[in-house]
Amino acid sequence: MFEKYAWDTSDFAVKEVTRYQSDPGQATAYMLGRLALMQLRNKTEKALGKRFSLQDFHYQVLSQGSAPLSFLQSHIDRYIKCMNKDLGEEECSYVLKPVKGAKSAMADMPHRKMPPKPEHRHYV
């Protein structure tokens, strides 16, 4: 079917069709996340103007890990308020003064023996 309608006979095309058939909601979830991130970036650029830094914006997004979009939106709203000085220094301390480098933060902690991490297994 891909060969007939999309003129693509590559191995990549077959893998993509198989991926979308096995998890049909993946593409929709990806696109919704992409659109939400683009809206957040545009909102942040408008609110901060010349003070907008793409590097800082990426840090704010990535530092939240695998968070729900609603949480990420509220975090970016707080970041904007902190950058505009609408909130106090204490309320913004964890947003505007992140820990620089986990290694330096770990160096200050007393050494203690951590339990071993379980082996990561792939079942595919």
Structural shape: flat
The domain tally reads 1
Oligomeric category: single chain
Distance between the termini: 27 Å
Mean pLDDT: 82
Using DSSP, what is the number of strands? 0
Query: Percentage of helical residues?
Result: 55-70%
Largest sheet: none
* Cα radius of gyration in angstroms: 21 Å
* Low-pLDDT regions: none
Counting DSSP H or I runs of 4 or more residues, the number of helices is 7
In short:
The chain has 124 residues and is mostly helical. The protein has helices spanning 2-6, 11-22, 25-48, 54-62, 69-83, 89-96, 102-108.
How would you sum up this structure, described in words?
The chain is mainly alpha-helical. The chain has one domain. It is built from 7 helices and no strands. Helix content is 65%, strand content 0%.
Set out the fold topology.
Elements: H1 2-6, H2 11-22, H3 25-48, H4 54-62, H5 69-83, H6 89-96, H7 102-108
Helix pairs in contact: 3-5, 5-6
Index terms:
124 residues; mainly alpha; 0% strand; flat
